[in-house]
């Protein structure tokens, strides 16, 4: 993909809906996907081997859809977890921009349109885009809009130690995966990992308006519960953050960049999370 496009040619975008045991919410999530105003749009409805009726609901809605968008239905034969699921969808998709959505959130119909409009004003340089979200309770009541404190940052050091991007609002380019490759399948915080990759390449673009209804208390908000590690929550949390740091280190080395400030930030975060694991283990033993 070239950085500057013919004004009359809009990029193909993939809207990727990631679902796992979301039967209570998936119907509205799929409506949000199918209602997108942007074209050309490829929609992937992907289920990570749910044990409930999530896939069957998506399958029925896909079969009944007769709109302008291409719809691809996928069900993983086994549960891949967040990192593996993202990798699978990247392999299935063909869009130049991948707009991600969780099965318990609801995207506004103008979400993709708005992101691409802002991306075009950016000359298609940014490799990650994110926006405000409208927070809702588990039963759908509005709680107000939200954005992260450091939402305008594209500094790689910020992505090492903070959650800059709200995953529910995240979109990323195909080229960032072409440059860095698949995610480690153990990765839980794909927004942090892909955001870091983007900060090392084309940068991160924030759109200051809510484009997603983000369900607090939903399954997607606490993704690491899918990991079956028989340790205390403190150890598990530190372990997950350590995996994030190791992925960031591998990604950073790939670009042969010698910015010692970034390397120092990664090293500091790795040491912190290793010490956190040790403290938690000692607490368990005592």
UniProtKB/TrEMBL annotation:
GO terms for molecular function: hexosyltransferase activity. It comes from the Bacteria. Residues 19-141 form the Glycosyltransferase 2-like domain. This is Glycosyltransferase 2-like domain-containing protein.
């Amino acid at each position: 993909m070239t950085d500057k496009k013919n004004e009359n040619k809009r990029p193909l975008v993939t809207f990727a809906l990631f679902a796992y045991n979301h039967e209570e919410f998936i119907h509205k999530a799929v409506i949000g996907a199918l209602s997108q105003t942007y074209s050309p749009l490829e929609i992937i409805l992907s289920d990570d081997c749910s044990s409930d009726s999530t896939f069957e609901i998506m399958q029925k809605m896909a079969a009944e859809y007769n709109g302008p968008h291409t719809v691809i239905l996928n069900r993983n034969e086994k549960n891949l977890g967040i990192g593996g699921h993202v990798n699978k969808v990247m392999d299935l998709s063909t869009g130049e921009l991948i707009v991600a959505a969780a099965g318990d959130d609801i995207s506004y119909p103008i979400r993709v349109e708005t992101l691409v409009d802002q991306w075009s004003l950016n000359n298609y340089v940014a490799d990650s885009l994110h926006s405000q979200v409208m927070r809702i309770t588990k039963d759908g009541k509005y709680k107000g809009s939200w954005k992260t404190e450091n939402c305008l940052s594209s500094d790689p050091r910020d992505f090492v130690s903070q959650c800059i991007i709200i995953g529910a609002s995240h979109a990323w380019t195909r080229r960032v995966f072409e440059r860095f490759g698949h995610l480690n399948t153990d990765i839980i915080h794909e927004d942090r990992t892909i955001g870091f990759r983007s900060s090392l390449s084309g940068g991160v673009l924030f759109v200051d308006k809510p484009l997603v209804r983000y369900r607090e208390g939903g399954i997607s908000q606490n993704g690491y519960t899918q990991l079956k590690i028989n340790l205390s929550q403190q150890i598990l949390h530190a372990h997950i953050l350590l995996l994030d740091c190791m992925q960031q280190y591998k990604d950073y080395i790939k670009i042969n960049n010698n910015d010692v400030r970034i390397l120092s930030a990664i090293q500091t975060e790795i040491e912190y999370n290793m010490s956190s694991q040790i403290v938690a283990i000692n607490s368990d033993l005592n």
